Amino acid sequence: MREKHPDKTPEVIDAELVEEAPAAPVEVPEADYSESGVPSFDHVRDRIEQRYTTSLGSTELAGLGGKEDVASLDKKIADRDKAAKDKLAEIRRAMREK
């Protein structure tokens, strides 16, 4: 660590100044709204597609999408429960016979 002495002046560092290069002009994309506040067709279409895909994803995550509906899922669950009860009854009968 350097000790600071009040009687010494700090060293001056000479630096070269570099001018910035002029920036290339930036192309501004077309706005989503006109000057009068009307949305463009592309903007409206993109919003509709976004909402549609969001709803499809929500339906799929909820398990309601595709070919299966709630009634068919309930029937599958009931069939599986019945098969489990039947298998349990079979195992109990087999244990009594021994």
Report on the structure:
By secondary structure, the chain is mostly helical. The chain is built from 2 helices and no strands. The model has no long low-confidence stretch (mean pLDDT 80).
Q: How is this structure best summarized?
A:
With 98 residues, the chain is mostly helical.
Write the layout of secondary structure elements.
Layout: H1 41-62, H2 70-97
Distance between the termini: 89 Å
Please give the number of β-strands: 0
Strand content: under 5%
Q: How much helix, percentage-wise, in residues?
A: 40-55%
Helical segment count:
2
H/E topology pattern? HH
Mean pLDDT: 80
Poorly predicted runs are none
Report the major sheet: none
Indicate the structural class. mainly alpha
What global shape is seen?
elongated
Estimated radius of gyration: 37 Å
Short descriptors:
single chain; 98 residues; mainly alpha; 2 helices
